[in-house]
Design goal:
17% strand; 7-stranded mixed beta sheet; alpha/beta; globular; 10 helices; Rossmann fold
Length: 220
């Protein structure tokens, strides 16, 4: 696996639930679901939708929101073993997340270090939370991703590297389309099946480990 590189989503992949949805369910006023629906149907970009969602949350509740997010970010079984395996095999493992720094970094801290962690950042200096976007789309993507996973892949992976994407949602679809192999669950699994994208389903990271150890996801 000397030439393999892995790009792994965070929300709903490393963690069992989508942390942004969980935060909004707990703290956002009624109506935030309309923004989620606008994103899922493509009427709003991910960047527009997530930015608008967090602008509904008052920074006065920063400590409460942060504590809740970290407490409820339950990591999917087998993740620690999966990370250890990538280290043993010297496989670069990048976490690429549309989530926000204030809950992504604390959740991942005890599992690192990783080859890199990419996520959006938060600004609590105003009355409501403002999301910043340090990893926007490159010139090859005009989708308004916010955090653009294909752009990150193009920057980090060489042409001859075997790219594996691990993910679950609509935010992972563009990355999966550019991968050599996908470990998929939930929405992303359905899209891979529908479009014939080479993949293997997973529920836990033990499943991911089994796939990689069997060589099913790696062609030489």
């Amino acid at each position: 696996m000397d030439n393999t590189v892995i790009f792994c989503d965070f929300d709903g992949t490393v963690t069992e639930k989508d942390n942004i949805v969980r935060i909004m369910n707990e703290f956002a006023p009624p109506g935030w679901e309309n923004l989620k629906e606008e994103v899922l149907t493509g009427r709003m970009t991910i960047k527009e939708g997530v930015g608008a969602m967090f602008s509904l949350l008052p920074t006065a509740r920063k400590a409460e929101i942060s504590e809740y997010a970290i407490k409820h970010a339950i990591v999917r079984p087998g993740f620690s073993e999966f990370v250890a395996f990538t280290r043993e095999e010297k496989i670069p493992l990048y976490i690429v997340s549309g989530g926000i720094d204030f809950f992504v970094y604390p959740t991942l801290e005890k599992y690192g270090p990783f080859s890199g962690v990419y996520c959006n950042t938060s600004d609590f200096s105003g009355k409501t939370i403002k999301v910043s976007w340090p990893h926007e789309c490159d010139e090859l993507c005009l989708a308004g991703c916010g955090l653009c996973k294909p752009s990150i892949m193009r920057k980090l992976a060489g042409r001859d590297q075997y790219k594996i994407v691990i993910g679950d949602s609509v935010t992972d679809f563009a990355a999966a389309s550019e991968a050599d192999f996908v470990l998929a669950r939930d929405f992303l699994q359905g899209k891979c099946e529908e479009l014939g994208i080479r993949h293997s389903p997973f529920h836990t990271f033990y499943d991911c480990l089994e796939t990689l150890r069997s060589g099913a996801g790696v062609i030489r």
